[in-house]
Amino acid sequence: MPDRIPCSAIVFDFDGTLADSMPFLESVGVEMMMKYFGISKEEATSRYRSTTGLPYEQQVKMNFPDDSRNQAAIEEFEHLKIERIFEQELFPDSVDTVRRIRAKGIDVFVSSSTFQPTIEEYFRRRGILRLFKAILGYRPGFEKGADHFNHIHKTFDVPFDRMVFVGDSLKDFERSKGFCKFIALSRMFTSKDFRNLGYEGPVLHTLLGVVRNIIAA
Length: 217
Ligand SMILES: [Mg+2]
Fold this sequence. Notes:
This protein is α/β, with parallel strands linked by helices. It has 10 helices and 8 strands. Helix 6 (116-125) links the parallel strand 3 (107-111) and strand 4 (134-136). Magnesium ion (MG) is lined by residues 13, 15-17, 53, 167-169.
């Protein structure tokens, strides 16, 4: 049994971590890059994956700096996303995992690059909105990472050394650095991908594994 991570708050990423939405989001994201920037599916997939975990707006702007087609691509992505995001299922162990963490007396938060009202509506439709202490979504100037962690720290009085962020993307790990502890979920990225960035913590293959890696403190 590895040493359990002492914590008072678990912060979950949303897309690809709690919700099995990445195949859908990637397909739309790649399609938009092909349509608006005329690149191949292979190149679009590579560009999408190298920036995944960030808001699509930033994915596009990083890949195609100062391109006049950016706004149209971003708007169509968001339009197609909102049409079908609510159909995307949670992973089978998501609700059980959140309930078990709460049963330990640990608060559960969500920090995401998806807009906040979208995530709230998603959980409301499933009747589980109240499981979360707070849901933090993206708006310009208030992002997953520093902004959200600082907000949780200040508003809910959570010390950074008692905060654990759980995410499925390399960008999630990068954004946790210097703030809080991190637990990696290996879904689209391998253990090796995370290790190559210097990550030394647990790499899990199921969300339920989080429960066995933490202890209330
Ligand atoms: Mg994610």
